[in-house]
Each structure stands twice: as C-alpha cells, then as structure tokens.
UniProtKB/TrEMBL annotation:
Subunit structure: Homodimer.
Entry's EC annotation: 3.5.2.3
Protein name: Dihydroorotase
PROSITE patterns: DIHYDROOROTASE_1 (PS00482), DIHYDROOROTASE_2 (PS00483)
Function: Catalyzes the reversible cyclization of carbamoyl aspartate to dihydroorotate.
Chain sites annotated for binding substrate: 16-18, 42, 137, 220, 252, 264
Family membership: Belongs to the metallo-dependent hydrolases superfamily. DHOase family. Class II DHOase subfamily.
HAMAP family, alphabetized: PyrC_classII (MF_00219)
Gene that produces this protein: pyrC
Organism this protein belongs to: Ruegeria atlantica
Length: 345
C-alpha cells in the first residue's frame, strides 16, 4: 500500500479569487499547495481589458502573504464589445493566458457575457490566429432548456458550431459535468481540453437534494446523475492529457449561500489536494494523479511544468477547518461527507 507520494507542485486551471477582503482570505488557501492558477475574471465589474487584468494581477500579488510563492495566470472576460487588438496586446505582453467566455446569464456575475456569438467572431478569429485559448462556461441559458441538459445542449448548439467555424481556436471546456462533455473532448484530437473540479468527482445531484437542500453543494454547472460523475472520474484518472484539474473554487459567504435564493459555487481551495487524492486512491489511480494536477494543464497551455514538488502522505483522517473567516463573513469549506486521508506535508 502506497502511503507517500511525491509529485510536481500542482496548478489550478480554474479559480475564483474575488477581490478585496475575500481575496485576502482565500488566496493563501490556494497558494499553500498550488504554484499557479488561471484566475477567473468574473468580478463586478468584470475584468475586460488588458489594463484591468494588470491591476487585478497587482492586487492579487499584493494580497499574497510574505514567503508564499504563487503566480496568477490572468484572463479577460469576453464581452460583445471586447477589442481584438487589446486582447492580442495583452497576450503578446505575456499578461494573459486565456479569454473567458460566459454566455450572458449562465452563472455568477455573467450578466456582461455574450448573447450573440456572432458579435465576438473577430475576437475568436484573432485568438485562433495567435493561439490564445478560450475558456468556456459551457451552458445554454434558454429558459426552455432543462438545467440538467444545458451543458449537452451547449456542446451541440454553440460550442461545436463555433469550433467548426473558427479553425485553430483552442478551447478549454471548463468544469465539465457530463459524459457528453467527456465524449466531446475525447472525439477531438487537437485544440480541445477540459477542466474537472474536485467536487464534481465526488457529488451527484442526489447529494444536493436528497434529505433536504444542501446549499454548499450547489454550483454551476449543477452536479448531474451518478453515471456522469463516474464518467468524470474515469476521465480524470485516465491520464488522458486533455483532462486537467480546475477546481472552480468559488467562495460565497454563508449568508449568500444559505438563503432563499442562494449563490452558486463550492469553495474547495482549502482541501482540494486531499479531496482529489482520496478519489484517485479509491480508484487505485494514484499513479495518474500527477498527470491530472501537475502535467496535463501546462501541456495544454504550453507552459513549463513546475520544478518544485509536494509530498502527500496517507494517515489518520485529515483535519481541516469547516469554515474560513473572511472580512465579509464565514465561507464554508466543501465537505465531501466522508473522511479524507491524504494530506500535503
Ligand atoms: N461555479 C459556480 O457555481 N460559480 C462561479 C462561476 C462559474 O464558474 O460558473 C462563481 O463565480 O461563483
Ligand atoms: Zn463557470
Ligand atoms: Zn468558475
């Protein structure tokens, strides 16, 4: 039985850090284990232009506690008014590593997102030309489409047509939640990858709804049936380079989660590595953990892998806080509902 595991330091390819007091509180939770993270731009107002990404990056670095090493990989929030030249300049300077597409209304702080995909065509063409990846929140927003079908319908109606009409566009399907997402990625040899969260490896829709509503299991895209969770787990543990960890750790205060209309988002930054290692161990796939958390992401983004390592050890159930304090109120840490045995030394 393996009880220690040394791997290259991991990265998080999908992270919400927010701003101000919340940023201050959640950044160390990520920086403790992760070397780099793709920083989601869905602030209010969103991070749209290169100069806004530069000042957000400065605020993140200013919030980093002394002695911690962490590199924020910045993104821009795609709007119908985004200027292709500004995007190209922010990419050429090394500031941004991706552009994020939110269909308007799909998720938290997506009101400034895209309604008419034809309007962003010039930006997408420029991105294809310069090799800048597009990260996609892949859900349609049509009122008549069932929330559990929104990812699958997005692939057919929006994503596949965009990819066919924009050859060379490199796409990351963010936080996939369905076997449809897994199958679509696998059916495409080039220019397509997907992030998978820790929580979607663990929960299905029953966890949210059976025995009472669990607001801390509610996120978007919402967790689906068990067969979909199993497809995600198989993809993550397969070693296939097209799948990599993006936690989508998305802090909301308990006050904003535990209410009649609670916010979407699970906060996993504190215990991500314990969650993921536990699930890989259960699948007898610890040999593929490094690929999922440390190798496949840099491979897709064409960045060097981290030189430093971390060591995980297996032992008594890991102690982690049930909540973290933030200047805005407590934020509940994702509780898988079972003990975790792997901790980062
Ligand atoms: N995943 C979520 O449920 N919420 C994210 C937004 C997102 O990634 O869709 C957030 O910013 O809170
Ligand atoms: Zn999203
Ligand atoms: Zn997200």
């Amino acid at each position: 039985m393996t009880d220690t595991l040394t791997i290259r330091r991991p990265d998080d390819w999908h992270l919400h850090l927010r701003d101000g007091a919340m940023l201050q509180a959640v950044l160390p939770e990520t920086a403790r284990h992760f070397a780099r993270a793709i920083i989601m731009p869905n602030l209010v107002p969103p991070v749209v232009r290169g100069d806004e990404a530069a000042t957000y990056r400065d605020r993140i670095l200013a919030a980093l506690p002394d002695g911690m090493v962490f590199e924020p990989l910045m993104t821009l929030y795609l709007t119908e008014d985004t200027d292709a030249q500004d995007v190209a300049a922010a990419h050429a300077s090394g500031l941004i590593k991706a552009v994020k597409l939110y269909p308007a209304g799909a998720t938290t702080n997506s009101a400034s997102g895209v309604r008419d995909f034809d309007k962003v065509r010039p930006v997408l063409e420029k991105m294809a030309e310069i090799g800048l990846p597009m990260c996609v929140h892949g859900e349609v927003t049509d009122a008549e489409i069932d929330i559990f079908d929104r990812e699958a319908v997005f692939i057919d109606r929006v994503l596949d047509p965009i990819r066919k009409s924009t050859p060379g566009l490199r796409v990351v399907m963010e936080h996939i939640t369905t076997s449809n997402g897994v199958d679509y990625v696998k059916a495409n040899e080039t220019d397509l990858g997907a992030t998978i969260t820790a929580h979607h490896l663990i929960i299905n829709r029953n966890h949210i709804l059976v025995g009472g509503i669990k607001p801390h299991y509610y996120c978007l895209p919402v967790a689906k049936r068990e067969e979909h969770r199993l497809a995600l787990l198989a993809a993550a543990t397969s070693g296939d380079p097209r799948f990599f960890l993006g936690t989508d750790s998305a802090p909301h205060t308990d006050a904003n989660k535990e209410m009649a209309c609670g916010c979407a988002g699970c906060f996993t930054a504190t215990n991500t590595m314990s969650l993921v290692a536990e699930m890989f161990d259960r699948e007898d796939a610890l040999g593929k953990l490094e690929a999922f958390v440390s190798l496949n992401g840099p491979g897709f983004y064409r960045l060097p892998v981290n030189e430093e390592t971390i060591t995980l050890t297996k032992g008594e159930p890991v102690a982690y806080p049930s909540k973290i304090d933030t200047g805005e109120g407590p934020v509940t840490v994702f509780d898988p509902g079972f003990p975790l045995h792997w901790s980062v030394a």
